[in-house]
Amino acid sequence: MKILLNIIRTAHAWAGLTLALLLMLSSVTGTLLVWKEDYVKLVTPAAHVDFTPTPQNLAVIAEAVEAQFDNNDILNIQFATAEFPLTKVTLYDTNYAYVDTQGNVVDAWHMNDRFEEWLYDLHHRLLLDDLGLTIVGLAAMALVILVILGLITFIPLRRHFSLRLLPGSLKRQALVSSHRNLGLVVALPLLLTLVTGIMLAFPFQVEDIFLDELRRTPEYSDAMVVGIDDITGEGTGDWLPAFERTLAVFPGSSIRSATVPSGFSAHRVIGVQQPGQWNRTGTSHVYVDSELGYMDLRIDSAGFPAIERIYNNGYPLHTGKTGSLLYKLFLTVCGLGVACLSLFGFVSFVRSKLG
Hints:
The chain is built from 13 helices and 8 strands.
């Protein structure tokens, strides 16, 4: 057993040295990104307004977006909220725009031209496009193993645990002690962010493994036509009636996103967040034909299988976009703790090799 623990301890040390700098980078950038919308709101004068996301107000924004961009270029509209009164439009070829509450474009950019988007690209892809995304995802998998190995090595040393998380000096023993204590405190939050990060890095692979078979069942597809209305006719597929009908079939929900009709599809796809759900991107959807007005599909994410509901919570749990200030503060403290954990471990290892 002692030999096995020594092997695990050695593997943890060398793997930690390899991944420490990447973990520090990810934890610091991730902590900053928790406050991304707050930063954007602070530096954008158009966001300093009171806004109520009623169907009427959102219809004005949607109509303005369609008027200013080619529908075939509009990939997604993420609507303004009372807390963040800017609408983000995702466009073809990694172009984006912010639109104010009156539908005016206040900023347009490509890829990571804005600071916070550059920071996101650094965190998510290391500024290396898909290669960086793969590296980050694989590193997160390795870090999950590293954390587990660290917890195993802690077991025989558990009597030495204390709540002294910061080292009293830069001596190696003090750094090792703080690394051990801090590691135990942040282990579960770190595992949460690593697992959800893996889900975001490899979404298609995760869906293929865990969700594909469920989505092929007749029960899954049959549920998509349950609860649709029978309204049709001229004008019933316009933005305002489409929004009103969406809220009628999803009572108490909030409209979060939309896909515009285009050459690829005549539907307005409207995403909503239902009461009690954490994902604020809108995981429940209504498909309304923009020309004939009929409601084609009603996709109720609250009725999804448990594994898919857990998957949908991965994004808000990782990014802090749950609507809770306390959770954002929790992620901030944990992110800084993980950065310190990596730093203490890295410095103590280097000092051990330098004597």
